[in-house]
Amino acid sequence: MMDATPELRETPPFVADGQSRPLDPRFVAAQRLTRWLFAGPVLLAALLAVLAGVLLGGPGAVLVLPAVWVASAALLVWWAHFWPPLAYRYASYSVDEQGIEMRRGVVWRRVLTVPRSRVQHTDVSQGPLERSHELGTLVIYTAGTSHAQVHLPGLTHATALDIRDHLLPTTSADAV
User: Fold this and answer.
1) What CATH topology corresponds to 93-170?
2) At a CB cut-off of 8 Å and minimum separation 6, what does 69 contact?
3) What residue ranges do the domains of the chain occupy?
4) Could you give phi then psi for residue 50, rounded to 5 degrees?
5) Is residue 71 exposed (0-12), middle (13-18) or buried (19+ Cβ within 10 Å)?
6) pLDDT tens, position by position, for the chain (176 residues)?
7) pTM higher than 0.85 for the full model?
8) Which residues contact 27 (CB under 8 A, 6 or more apart)?
C-alpha cells in the first residue's frame, strides 16, 4: 500500500537566508525572445500598411508614413532588445523566515513585500519559452484584495519550487 502523504522536499538553506538575489540571467534571453515574437509580426504588418499607404496615397504619404514607421520600428527594437537587460538589472528578490520581498522597476521602482502569514497558496508555472530556458514563475496568492496574486518570473524552475515549498505552512496551525 502506498503512503498517501506527499514527500516533503527539504528547503535548501540559501532560499530563506534574507540575501537579495538577482533573477536568473537566462531571463533576459527569454524576455528578448518573447518580445521579438510580438514585435516582429507588428513591424511586418506596419511595413505592409506603410507600403500600401505609399502606393495608394499622395506625395505627403511618401515622406510621412516611412518616417513614422522608422520611428516606431526603432522604438519597438529598443523595447524588444535593450529593455530586458535593463529591467533585469533592477529586479531582485529576497526570502527570509518572515516572507518574500520583490524589487522591480527601471523608471518607477517598486518594492513588494509578502509576509508569510498572508500567503494562502503558491504555484509554479512554466510556459513553453520559460521551459526552454529552464525557468519558472512563482505565483503567490495572498489574503486580502490588493496584490492578491503576485508573480515572480525569472527564477530557475528548481529555485521557484524551493521558494514555493518554503512559503507553504509548516504546521497545521499555519493554515489560513
Assistant:
1) PH-domain like (2.30.29)
2) 46, 47, 50
3) 29-87, 93-170
4) -65, -45
5) exposed
6) 444 444 444 545 577 888 999 999 999 999 999 999 999 999 999 999 888 888 887 777 778 888 889 999 999 999 999 999 999 999 999 999 899 999 999 999 999 999 988 888 899 999 999 999 999 999 999 887 666 899 999 999 999 999 999 988 766 555 44
7) no
8) 84, 88, 133, 135, 153, 154
The single-letter code of the amino acid at 168 is: L
CA 167-100-92 angle, 5° bins? 130
**Please, which residues have CB within 8 angstroms of residue 4's CB and are 6 or more apart in sequence?**
none
Residues 6+ apart with CB under 8 A from 71: none
